[in-house]
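User: Design a sequence. Structure:
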């Protein structure tokens, strides 16, 4: 068996999220009139220092970046938001092409058998996996998962395509959307950043991604395979610089 080193660089700019709970609008006791909020100089009814969540929601909606949708956790990305994503996409795509990375696209749907094979990898995503269970009014004989991430979809085919050293390096990237059926105080574009290394018997991975709570988000992920750890390390360092420049 040929020892391989896989580098997985994943970055997502999750351009979807929810706002804070809206105030109830009830009047206070004692027959007092409801206090009327004054607009700020920008036409907003909330001030950043007083209620950041409400202020921020107003900014992204009034700034025409998003529009709320009738399915919670899913949001319409308006042209201004998409233009930001496109600028990032054009920059990053040009840089990774200099590294001889090629674009591809893998299917959105994942079979249960594939998820089971990679159960250790998707364990953290398991509660968030969305499933297609019907076709029209008929139940599917075998439910189909919607990808929460793409390792489970891509790596079986890496194993098929890499038969020897002549097939290395293999450098692929895909631009896609990902679905994770989670919902916990979502806020558009606000993210927690996490960077961690995954080291196992046949893979060396660097996950660098921006994370916030939403159900569907735009996603970039590069997956490259090398014959030596040194080559893999160099690729990780090179691509991580591009993430930093974003």
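Assistant: Done.
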């Amino acid at each position: 068996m040929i020892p391989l080193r896989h580098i997985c660089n994943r970055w997502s700019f999750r351009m979807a999220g929810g706002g804070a709970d809206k105030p109830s609008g009830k009047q206070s006791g004692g027959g007092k009139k409801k206090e009327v909020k004054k607009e700020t100089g920008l036409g907003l009814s909330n001030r950043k220092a007083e209620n950041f969540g409400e202020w921020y929601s107003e900014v992204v909606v009034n700034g025409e970046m998003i529009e709320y949708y009738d399915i919670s956790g899913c949001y319409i990305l308006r042209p201004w938001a998409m233009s930001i994503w496109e600028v990032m996409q054009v920059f990053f795509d040009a840089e990774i092409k200099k590294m001889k990375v090629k674009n591809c696209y893998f299917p959105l749907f994942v079979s249960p058998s594939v998820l089971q094979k990679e159960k250790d990898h998707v364990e953290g995503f398991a509660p968030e996996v969305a499933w297609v269970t019907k076709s029209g009014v008929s139940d599917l004989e075998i439910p189909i998962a919607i990808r929460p991430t793409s390792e489970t979809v891509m790596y079986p085919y890496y194993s098929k395509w890499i038969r020897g050293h002549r097939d290395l390096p293999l450098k692929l990237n895909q631009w896609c959307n990902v679905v994770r059926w989670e919902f916990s105080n979502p806020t558009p574009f606000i993210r927690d950043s996490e960077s961690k290394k995954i080291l196992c018997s046949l893979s060396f991975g660097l996950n660098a991604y921006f994370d916030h709570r939403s159900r569907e988000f735009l996603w970039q992920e590069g997956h490259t395979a090398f014959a030596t750890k040194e080559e893999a390390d160099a690729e990780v360092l090179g691509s991580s610089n591009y993430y930093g420049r974003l």
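Residues 79-98 form the longest helix (20 residues). The two ends are 38 Å apart (CA to CA).
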